[in-house]
Amino acid sequence: MNLSTPINENTSHRVLANDPDWWRGAVIYQIYPRSFADSNGDGIGDLPGITEKLDYISDLGADAIWISPFMKSPMDDFGYDVSDYEDVDPMFGSLDDFKELVAKAHGKGIRVLIDLVISHTSEQHEWFKESRSNKTNSKSDWYVWADPKADGSPPNNWLSIFGGSAWQWDSRRCQYYLHNFLRSQPDLNFHCEEVQQAVLDAGRFWLELGVDGFRLDTVNFYVHDKQLRDNSPYPDPDSLADVTGVNPYAFQDHKFDKSQPENLPFLERLRAVMNEYPNTTTVGEIGAGHEASEIMKQYTSGEGRLHMAYSFDLLSNTPTATYVRERVTNLQNIVTEGWPSWAMSNHDVKRMGSRLPADVDPQVATPALMALSASLRGSPCIYQGEELGFKEADVALEDLQDPYGIEFWPEYKGRDGCRTPIAWTKDGGFTTGKPWLPMAQDHLDHSAEVQAGDEASPLRRTAKYLQWRKDQKVLQKGSLDFADLGEDVLAFVREHEGEQVLCVFNLTNDDMRVALGAYSSAALLEGHGFSAEMDGEALNLPAWQVAYLQISKN
């Protein structure tokens, strides 16, 4: 489908540059394929659907796409339970469809990252079928197996993120196997050398097909404590942002079931594989609660581990000036070498538009928040629909698909609310059939088609900003230092190769007059689509607007 009014009529054909550093500051657009675009009318998005929307992504100003899992899977966890690492699940298309997607994306100057889910597999994977068959087969130690305690109970107190014990009894081997997620997602044993080689070979398979890198799902879950020691209680469960407080998983300090030091040598092996393929990258998802920044520091230090790590800091809470300043400062103080990737929404959390105060309209606030995530030192990830200012959809119990939400309903309704199909037109436009999740009326009212014809819409304003940003190396690569222009003002200086730009954000519903002090001689930059005016030595900044000022060289 072509939008009635192009977002950027001057978008030209681009080719991929030979740039090993392209990922540093790149705008990454996350696609949840089930809900992006359906090409065959079965109600589920697919790879050809993504290919059809590449112009939309290019016009938006994204440098790369990250596609959530599409490998062969029984879909118990919607693709995060892989049954074959070297094939596309038929519901998403074929390997030929993927090859065409990569070729066409590259032809438009768009890099392609895919989810690599290697901490666990589906129970239907041939590896697990063999491993569970007996205790003497060739893959008997490819998964985490353990004998029961004398009373028949699990070997320790580890819990699953999806509820209950992380151990499942298997009657074939008369042992328990570890599953950090669903019982149908057994954890691979990374203490086994053959397992490490097998998952590296799986990555190499997709690199040979031309992918530009991987988003590594649950990268700190790969290795478990070999002694299977019990976790101790966590003193403040409500402080953890990556699990809900009604989930007993939050009650433990996960010292032994993840984030083990033996993971570092594996990451170095992975980086060595990536280095065989020029211009590729890795971004790791680190689910570690209060220790996430420390783990990120370890995983991204030097040149031999991950290129960047995905921060959870802006995926919860309201993005006020105080909160953003506090979280970014904390991360920068700890992760002094590594490169972060910032996101305000993804397929696992409540949409940003529904985390704002009740008196804030996401249609008004979205462009400023998109600019914020793309102005921080790091690589921004935009989750599909975020550029449209979508709120979380309200999915009724009878329509829920997410096993996580079904388990903890009604206090926690799961992840379906952020996974509903994209509204391309006011009538839907996602599929000619029945969508796998119902579409929200609010999304239909603010569809991509409607917004494409309105220059004041979040879509058009975000696209204008991101296209402008492509020429701002200082915003892509520069350092970041906060400037004190008032408690309610978020301000920082980006610096790169002698160029300095002051970024000032009004993340409120009220107009601001900001005294610039030492920055009063800075000159406003234009072309990004935001409104601000200089008033003597002060800056008049309307509600939900952003100013970029060039700082004079002395």
Walk me through what this model shows.
It is a single chain. By secondary structure, the protein is an alpha/beta fold. It is 23% helix and 17% strand. It contains 14 helices and 23 strands. The strands form 6 sheets. Strands 1-2-5-9-12-13-14-15 form an 8-stranded parallel barrel. Strands 16-17-18-23-20 form a 5-stranded antiparallel β-sheet. Strand 12, helix 7 (292-300) and strand 13 form a beta-alpha-beta unit. It is globular and about 80 Å long. The chain starts with 27 loop residues before the first strand and ends with a strand. Mean pLDDT is 95; it is low at 1-14.
Observed structural traits:
single chain; 554 residues; alpha/beta; eight-stranded parallel β-barrel; five-stranded antiparallel sheet; 14 helices; 23 strands; globular; disordered N terminus
Care to give the gist of this entry?
23% of the residues lie in helices and 17% in strands. The protein has 554 residues and is α/β, with parallel strands linked by helices.
Write the layout of secondary structure elements.
Layout: E1 28-31, H1 47-52, H2 54-60, E2 64-67, E3 71-72, E4 84-88, H3 95-107, E5 111-116, H4 126-131, E6 145-146, E7 167-170, E8 175-178, H5 193-208, E9 213-216, E10 232-233, E11 252-253, H6 263-275, E12 281-285, H7 292-300, E13 308-310, H8 321-334, E14 339-343, H9 362-373, E15 379-383, H10 403-408, H11 441-445, H12 448-452, H13 458-469, H14 473-477, E16 479-482, E17 490-496, E18 499-505, E19 512-515, E20 523-524, E21 533-535, E22 538-541, E23 546-550
Parallel strand pairs: 1-2, 1-15, 2-5, 5-9, 9-12, 12-13, 13-14, 14-15
Antiparallel strand pairs: 3-4, 6-8, 7-8, 10-11, 16-17, 17-18, 18-23, 19-22, 20-23, 21-22
